[in-house]
Structure formats: structure tokens, C-alpha cells
Amino acid sequence: MSVIALIGLGGNLGDVRGRLRDAIDALERVPGVHVTARSRIYRTPPWGHLDQPDFINAAIAVSTSLDAHALLDALLAVERSLGRVRDGARWGPRTIDLDLLAFGDAVIHDDRLDVPHPRIPERAFVLLPLADIAPDVVLPGMGRVADLRAAIDHGACQVLE
């Protein structure tokens, strides 16, 4: 059985666009994962800690036969392979970040994973690329992606490609 998962990609240090492409290519090589859609690439202001460079963000949809935790493990492995070191600092600068935003219609809240990602409705850097690839997806407990995007200020964000 296959599930559609939505993944957010971003970073703000170094060649982020190149790393985003490398991350998508690496995910395509994971057994049981097939990329089915890619968003445009956006430049977005930092969120959380504002004294850092702008971020480059995108989103992909994948069809996967992996369970949510195995997919999370694959995302973390790809991050590590691209030089990401998780030092515990939240919302700070990073070379690459891969977030499992949604996993079909699953609702998961455990010590490793919160799906759908609880802060999606607050984040233009997530909603803009998600609306490119999944505008009609209804996120459990949150609503339809296109409606969430329409409700958030995204004026400081810019389409790059």
C-alpha cells in the first residue's frame, strides 16, 4: 500500500538550491519512495530567530510504501548525507532541513513525530510551496492547504524558480 506524504525542504546556509536538488535526488533513490510533485522554489524571511539570512524553501509530494517513522528516518539520513548537523538549536541557520509535513490522512503525535506538522498554519514558507503541489489536500485538524495559504501573510516571500 502506498501513501502520499508531503515534505518541506529548506535551508539558508551555502548552496541551498543545489542541496535541495541533491536532497530530492537522494530521496528518489530511497527504496519505497517516489517523488510525484515538486513545488516552485521560494525565498522567505527567517522564522523564529530573525537575525539570520533568508531561507530558500520548497516542497515535494512523495508516494511511499514506508511507514511514517521509516520515512522520517530516511529524511534524517538524507540531511546527514548533505552535511546537516542537528545541534539542538531551533529555528536557527541550517544547511538543509527536511520536514515530514503530512503523511496521508494520518495524525501522529509521539516522541519522534508530529504529523501533520503542528505549525503549518503559521508558516508562509511551508504553505506557499505546499499550495503549489497540494492545494486541495485537507490537513487533519487544520483545513485545506489553499485556504490556509489564503489566510496567511506571504508578502515578504518571493518566487525564485
Report on this model:
Pfam families: HPPK (PF01288). This is 2-amino-4-hydroxy-6-hydroxymethyldihydropteridine pyrophosphokinase. It contains 4 helices and 10 strands, in the order βαβββαβββαββαβ. The chain is of the alpha+beta class. The chain has a single domain (3-159), classed as Alpha-Beta Plaits (2-Layer Sandwich), CATH 3.30.70.560. Strands 1, 2, 3, 4, 5 and 10 form a 6-stranded antiparallel sheet that branches. A two-stranded antiparallel ribbon has the order 6-7. β8 (138-139) and β9 (143-144) form a beta hairpin. The protein starts with a strand and ends with a strand. The mean pLDDT is 91.
Itemize the secondary structure elements and their pairings.
Elements: E1 3-11, H1 16-28, E2 33-38, E3 42-44, E4 55-64, H2 68-81, E5 97-103, E6 108-109, E7 114-115, H3 124-133, E8 138-139, E9 143-144, H4 145-150, E10 158-159
What distance lies between the first and last C-alpha atoms, to the nearest angstrom? 33 Å
Number of helices: 4
- Main beta sheet strand tally, sense and closure: 6 strands, antiparallel
- The name of the CATH architecture is 2-Layer Sandwich
Average of the residue pLDDT scores: 91
Q: Which residues sit in consecutive blocks of at least 5 with pLDDT less than 50?
A: none
What Rg is obtained from the alpha carbons, in whole angstroms? 14 Å
CATH homologous superfamily? Answer: 7,8-Dihydro-6-hydroxymethylpterin-pyrophosphokinase HPPK
Classify the fold: give the CATH topology: Alpha-Beta Plaits
Q: What would you call the quaternary organization? A: single chain
Q: Which outline best applies?
A: globular
Strand content is: 25-35%
Give me the count of strands: 10
CATH class: Alpha Beta
* Approximate helicity band: 25-40%
- When the domains are counted, the total is 1
* Sequence of secondary-structure elements: EHEEEHEEEHEEHE
Structural class: alpha+beta
Enzyme class: transferase
Pfam families: HPPK
Protein name: 2-amino-4-hydroxy-6-hydroxymethyldihydropteridine pyrophosphokinase
Keywords: ATP-binding, Folate biosynthesis, Kinase, Nucleotide-binding, Transferase
